[in-house]
Specification:
Helix content: over 70%
Distance between the termini: 12 Å
Radius of gyration: 16 Å
Strand content: under 5%
Number of helices: 2
Length: 73
């Protein structure tokens, strides 16, 4: 595996983890109706982390695809 593949795999792992947190928070909200500033801050933090992980994963995949397509190592 190349360094790029490790970076993509690490980004995929972060994306999976943040997705699991977001799903867990949605399940908690479906069963129990939490509220308050703490819950709002946790939801905002989860949203930001998921968005950053998704963008990082997509950018790394596109860069790896372009590099493989151009034939550069």
């Amino acid at each position: 595996m190349t360094t790029d593949a490790y970076r993509v795999a690490r980004a995929a792992g972060c994306l999976e983890a943040t997705f699991a947190v977001a799903v867990g928070m949605n399940l908690a909200e479906a069963v129990w109706d939490p509220g308050g500033a703490g819950w709002g801050a946790a939801r905002a933090a989860a949203t930001v982390l998921f968005t950053v992980a998704l963008v990082a994963y997509l950018v790394l995949r596109v860069l790896r695809w372009r590099r493989a397509r151009s034939g550069r190592p």
